[in-house]
Amino acid sequence: MADLTRLDAASLKTFREHALADFITDLKSIMKDDTNGVRSLHSVAKGLLPADYYGENAVLGIGLMTADDTVYGKTLLGSVLSSATSIDNILDAQGTLFGDIDDNLETTLTTLLNTQGSTLEGINGEKLLDIWSDIDRDLAGDEDD
């Protein structure tokens, strides 16, 4: 991992190309179905089913228990779906946040560091804040978050 105790261009570039890129790749892979047939939370939350399972419940395979609440199957199904949807929304928001962080690091490296020096010390703070302003929006979230 890059040494970020001194924020020079080389350290930022190493961080972006390795640690951040690996994290973004891992985050994207979490949101995809496994090649061995394990469905992702994203697929569960969206009700996406492989063609082999057409007509089955997309959230839980608990058979007739989902038909009514005699054994609380319907309640269980609703709770699982609600939880899966919440986690999927968090993962989606994290994907947006870290994608923006990656874009902003690239902009910082290519635009500001190349024109104003090799460290962040020589960069106009206002320009740096302008580049990173979308991160504030990502962290603030929606009213529903």
From TrEMBL:
<protein>
    <submittedName>
        <fullName>Type VII secretion system-associated protein</fullName>
    </submittedName>
</protein>
<dbReference type="InterPro" id="IPR049801">
    <property type="entry name" value="T7SS_assoc-like"/>
</dbReference>
